[in-house]
Amino acid sequence: MAPAYEQSAVPACEQSVVPAYEQSVVPAYEVRAVPGIPEVRPGDDLAKVIASAAPDLRDGDVLLVTSKIVSKAEGRIVAADSREAAVDAETVRVVARRGTLRIVENRQGLVMAAAGVDASNTEPGTVLLLPEAPDASARALRAGLARLLSVDVGVIVTDTFGRPWRNGLTDVAIGAAGVRVLDDLRGGTDAHGNPLSATVVALADELAAAGELVKGKAAGLPVAVVRGLAHVRDEGGGHGEGARQLIRPAADDMFRLGTSEAVREAVTQRRTVRSFTDEPVDPGAVRRAVAAAVTAPAPHHTTPWRFVLLESAESRTKLLDAMRDAWIADLRRDGKSEESIAKRIRRGDVLRNAPYLAVPCMVMDGAHTYGHARRDAAEREMFVVATGAGVQNFLVALAGEGLGSAWVSSTMFCRDVVREVLGLPGGWEPMGAVAVGHPAGVASPRAVREASAFVEVR
Question: Which keywords describe this protein according to UniProt (predicted)?
Answer without folding.
Answer: GTP-binding, Ligase, Magnesium, Manganese, Metal-binding, Multifunctional enzyme, Nucleotide-binding, Oxidoreductase, Potassium
